[in-house]
Amino acid sequence: MRLKDLDMEGKVAIVTGGSQGIGRAISVALRTSGATVVIADLDEEAATALATQFAAEGSEALAVRTDVTRADQVNEMVRRTLAQFGRIDVLVNNAGGASGSNFRIGRLLSISETDWDMTMTVNLKSTFLCSQAVGRVMWERQSGSIVNMASITASIPWAGMPAYSAAKAAIVSLTRSMALELAPYIRVNALAPGLVETPRTSRNRGPEQLDQLLSNVPMQRMGQPEEIADIALYLASDVSGWITGNIVDCNGGQVWMSRDGRPEFRDAARAAPG
Ligand SMILES: NC(=O)c1ccc[n+]([C@@H]2O[C@H](COP(=O)([O-])OP(=O)(O)OC[C@H]3O[C@@H](n4cnc5c(N)ncnc54)[C@H](O)[C@@H]3O)[C@@H](O)[C@H]2O)c1
């Protein structure tokens, strides 16, 4: 299998949080390469709109309203996927974030216990719940690829988001444990993006904050959701058949720069949101 053969025809892929932001771009990339996409999202309206768009473009798709923090809803998502398509080849554990409708970002000394728990649950527990439910199905077929969503903050914590950074670091560790336990049938990898241009990114940060964060990015710009989606597609596909337990840094060079130990990076990190 070579890159030019990347073809997901006949494969069924679940994308959690697949209706907006990076998840939406991943859903689109998978669909464009021929996969049947299941959009599992809390936002039923957005998920249904995207599935309807895919259907109008000639691809079968399914929208399932799913709260990935709830085991019963995750199991129902798997049940409906199998009932409609009979198999699951790819799981992208994309749903998550540093804040949401029922939890907020916060510094160590001020974050509430509830916000801490929700941050951990939405990012880390959801990855466990979906991976266990889907992993059991993949294990039976002795085939599958799981892509988790970590973050640059897993290795370079930004001040103001200790819970999110810890959750994403745990996802990195979980990814490696999963890769070990699920080999040789199921591959498990993760993406660790830097700042990506989604509606949430601009909503949560003013232009000055963004400028400051970008001043530490050698490529001097945010990533685009489509750039993250292309890597997810590569990891989901058989083209990456010998890659497992890998964390792909995609951040415009920021990890490399921080390892350089530059003081201006540390200053910006201290001034980051929170
Ligand atoms: N945007 C960035 O700069 C960036 C950087 C690094 C990592 N990430 C990670 O990438 C992922 C996507 O981020 P984004 O910026 O595209 O987010 P986003 O807020 O634009 O989209 C998140 C999607 O997930 C859904 N969702 C939220 N909670 C859910 C739940 N409990 N169950 C099911 N669906 C749920 C939302 O409805 C939405 O469709 C997250 O895991 C985030 O932590 C983002």
Notes on the protein architecture:
With 274 residues, this protein is an alpha/beta fold. It has one domain: NAD(P)-binding Rossmann-like Domain (Rossmann fold). It is 47% helix and 14% strand. The protein is built from 10 helices and 7 strands. It has helices spanning 21-32, 44-56, 71-85, 113-141, 162-182, 199-204, 207-214, 225-236, 254-259, 263-270; strands at 12-16, 36-41, 61-65, 90-93, 144-149, 186-193, 247-250. The chain has a 7-stranded parallel sheet with strand order 3-2-1-4-5-6-7, sandwiched between helices. Helix 2 (44-56) links the parallel strand 2 and strand 3 (61-65). Helix 4 packs parallel to helix 5 (162-182). The longest helix has 29 residues, at 113-141. The radius of gyration is 18 Å and the shape is globular. The termini are far apart. Residues 259-263 have low confidence and may be disordered.
Q: Assign a percent range to the helix content.
A: 40-55%
Q: Whole-number average pLDDT?
A: 92
Q: Would you list the SSEs in sequence order as H and E?
A: EHEHEHEHEHEHHHEHH
Q: Describe the biggest sheet?
A: 7 strands, parallel
